[in-house]
Amino acid sequence: MVMDLLSVYEALLDRFGRQGWWPMSNGFSPPEWEVCLGAILTQNTNWRNVELALANLRVAKVTGPREVMETSLHELERLIRPSGFYSQKAERLRHFAAFVLGFGGFEKFSADVTRPQLLGVSGLGPETADSILLYALGRPVFVIDAYTRRVFKRLGIDGMNGYEEWRGFFEENLPRDVDVYREFHALIVELAKADCRKDPSCGRCVLSSKCARRNLKSD
Fold first, then answer.
1. Are 178 and 138 in contact (CB under 8 A)?
2. Contact at 8 Å (CB) between 80 and 57?
3. For residue 151, which of 169, 138, 176 has the smallest C-alpha distance?
4. SS3 at position 139
5. Which of 145, 139, 143, 64 is nearest to 101 (CA)?
6. Between the CA of residue 167 and those of 14, 54, 126, 162, 171, what are the distances in Å?
7. Is 133 left (phi over 0), alpha (psi -120 to 50) or beta?
8. Contact predicate 126/143, CB 8 Å
9. Alpha-carbon distance 108 to 101, whole Å?
10. Which of 30, 176, 54 lies closest to 108 in space, CA to CA?
11. CA dihedral defined by 197, 200, 206, 210, rounded to 10 degrees?
12. Using an 8 Å Cβ cutoff, are 127 and 145 in contact?
């Protein structure tokens, strides 16, 4: 199925407005380090729990990769406990911080790291790695998540074999623009939470006229 992704993006932008992802607060150094932490901590939990864990890290002044490495594993687990799976995530944060410092610091990491290198870090799957690339490093890489698959399968996009094919579909059919990628991904999440839920509210969805699922039900 051929789909004008820009028209979908514009419809969602008109419906929900700019989302401004990824939120960064003061206190982390550099500020983009908070995005990296959030991308790892948000695995298998909701953002509210991640915010609590980030607040703990900020108060404890564990605000950069070097501070993560200098903090005991036990203390790191305690600080990020609200995010769930805290033992596993503490290990992943340590692996990632060591990886970043291996470049000589965050600035060099940001400039030089490649996607394959990120995917080689323990605990970083494609969605997490691409979130870091897009939101922290400003690379034009589209993030695919469960919300994206749900929404676009209902819109009639099927036959995709895995993450990379989904990512390729979006990157091939959108302008190579970091701002568009960031906003579109965030808008898809907003749509999935507001209207295109597991039990969808199709009547108020701005994409209902494009929705294969809705149109099949109407036949």
1. yes
2. yes
3. 169
4. coil
5. 64
6. 24, 29, 10, 9, 6
7. alpha
8. no
9. 9
10. 30
11. 110
12. yes
Between CA 190 and CA 99 the distance in angstroms is 32
List, in order, residues 6 or more apart from 66 with CB less than 8 Å away: 97, 101
3-state secondary structure of 156: coil
Cβ(204)–Cβ(167) under 8 Å? no
Q: For 82, which DSSP code?
A: G
Q: Does residue 47 have a cis bond before it (omega within 30 degrees)?
A: no
pLDDT in tens, the chain (219 residues): 457 999 999 999 999 999 999 888 879 999 999 999 999 999 999 999 999 999 999 999 999 999 999 999 999 999 999 999 999 999 999 999 999 999 999 999 999 999 999 999 999 999 999 999 999 999 999 999 999 999 999 998 888 889 999 999 999 999 999 999 999 999 999 999 999 999 998 888 999 888 876 654 543
Structure tokens at 123: 């605990």
DSSP assignment, residue 44? T
* Distance from the Cα of residue 41 to its chain's centroid: 11
Q: What is the pTM of this model?
A: 0.94
